[in-house]
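Researcher: Here's my situation. A collaborator sent me these components and asked whether they could plausibly form a single complex. I don't have experimental data yet, so a predicted model of the whole assembly would be a useful starting point for our discussion.
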Amino acid sequence: MDEPVKKFLKELTPYPPGKPIEELEREYGVKNSIKLASNENPLGPSPKAIKAIKESLNKINRYPDSKGYYLKNRLAEKFGLPMADIILGNGSDEIIKLATHAFVSPGDEVIIPFPTFLMYEKNAQSFQGKIIKIPLKDFYIDLSSILNAISEKTKIVFLNNPNNPTGTALGINEISYFLQSIPKEVIIVLDEAYIEFATEKNIESTIHLLESCPNLIILRTFSKLYGLAGLRIGYGFASKDIINVLTLLQQPFSTNYIAQVGAIAALNDNKFVKKTLALITEGLKFIYSQLNTMGLQYINTQTNFLMIKTPISSKETHERMLKEGVIIRSMEDFGIKDFIRINIGLPEENERFIRTLKKIL
Amino acid sequence: MDEPVKKFLKELTPYPPGKPIEELEREYGVKNSIKLASNENPLGPSPKAIKAIKESLNKINRYPDSKGYYLKNRLAEKFGLPMADIILGNGSDEIIKLATHAFVSPGDEVIIPFPTFLMYEKNAQSFQGKIIKIPLKDFYIDLSSILNAISEKTKIVFLNNPNNPTGTALGINEISYFLQSIPKEVIIVLDEAYIEFATEKNIESTIHLLESCPNLIILRTFSKLYGLAGLRIGYGFASKDIINVLTLLQQPFSTNYIAQVGAIAALNDNKFVKKTLALITEGLKFIYSQLNTMGLQYINTQTNFLMIKTPISSKETHERMLKEGVIIRSMEDFGIKDFIRINIGLPEENERFIRTLKKIL
């Protein structure tokens, strides 16, 4: 198969996902393992979503609504935007891919902070973009260096606020200034997957800036706060013109029926949202205090996950934790050799993590 | 948004999906409508799939297994292929897109019979392929004209066997000869979405040809026979090398968790499969005899749908049927002005279709 395949494909590497629990138990022969590796909602899915899905299962022989009418309608209502400014995706991952497909030709420059969510880089590579990595500054996205890096060849700037894997977030004033300063020919993909978890006052969504920023694409997801990662449903906001272009590149039945149904119900599940946010707050308090006692460094987070510095390599920590049935993320995948990332779990999962960490160190 | 977007995007047009029942009822103010437009399974989803999904809903807060281990394992067992030769897709649509992404650069030629499933063309356009359309011959795919059309610039030939929307199918000997005759640098994407419905003896899958055809990609789906269109789950077979390349271009969590769970259960639901096939056979018999009585021409089908020639334009027939709450497909979307396409429904749906057709003509 050397002949027909495009040459650049040979340089692509796969995305390293968090290990699924079943895979760990299959490969390591452990049982009762827990997963704190993928920033999932430890409470499970929104109960309202489960109920709505159960009632809709008899319709899964039908193709989903390719327009996602009811879900877009609900999102439009919630966020005060016209439906035409909304796109649904098979996870917000898909919208990242569509944006890259629409705007990046081979050799075009794509600016990506480093480290950040790996899918920006993976997608830019798959459309042969030239990736310009801008290192974080004290674990924060460095907007002024990004501004300096913009050239005539820059097509997209990816920003993740709060940023995965660091958990740090930029204030709305900084972002607003950045959006005003950037040339209108450059697309900003601003991924707000974790924005609902932010507790600092000046961290907020950029939705109100959409109207004045025709080059802004905002990404959101049902995978975190709403507990629907398994269904694959994300959404994006942008100008009608951008949404039109992205939609033309999208498979017509990209978001599945169950995901649309579950997402609508989850949006109405205020009780679950509150419970989740309280759990994260309490869990973080516990983890912070334990890490302080252990004398381990960590990065204060605006999300449901945090990075922790380990005295042994993150690869080794990861491997030892796996053997104990605790799935975490080694930050080596992100190019950092001495940090791990965990998400907040249930109280007993947080306790087990701390107990196991003490044991293996 | 004129600046950053790639110019070719302005020439793309959206895929015209079959109207969802809810949309028809919302827009036309009709009730109790039926849908025979999207070749869905009228019996509903596989009951085993529904049961398995219900039992798994408490896990949809977790990301799906990006490797699709258990579903691939089951498919490998069923089809006697190594797991490395299998890819799962968010519908087989996604695999069409991945193949086009992997093999088609701007200006490369993509050969597509005409008319056929529209997504081949849509995807080829979105990667700026030059589309060479080869008209059907007496409603059959014309393999010898396709062979003649192959040039040094040809990257992919798309074949749909049986062919949507005509329902016609090529025999295994013809396809086998074609596969042997085609240069190994040309990828054949052979979409067998409807192969399980074929009743003629010489119509069969090409799976046994995979080993001798390193340039063959076979596509299959759970959307038709298994009644899982709403979940979006398709699969493909090809050499390990091709599968590797396609997987590198795929989002890691492209197929959702519920789809994986449902598909495994559906594969084991022999009772449902038998019931579906019997329903289609009986339904076709009924429709054929009614059309004969009415003196309407139609094309004999190897699938769960068929094309019917109408004395008025297909557009007009489509519109009049919609007003009566019967959703069918105008073949105008496929460039044919005097045919409609329907799929076989439940007995009462088939009767209502015939009754309504008589009324509106």
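Model: Some features of this prediction you could bring to your collaborator: The two ends of chain B are 46 Å apart (CA to CA). Chain B has two domains: 7-45+271-360, 58-267.
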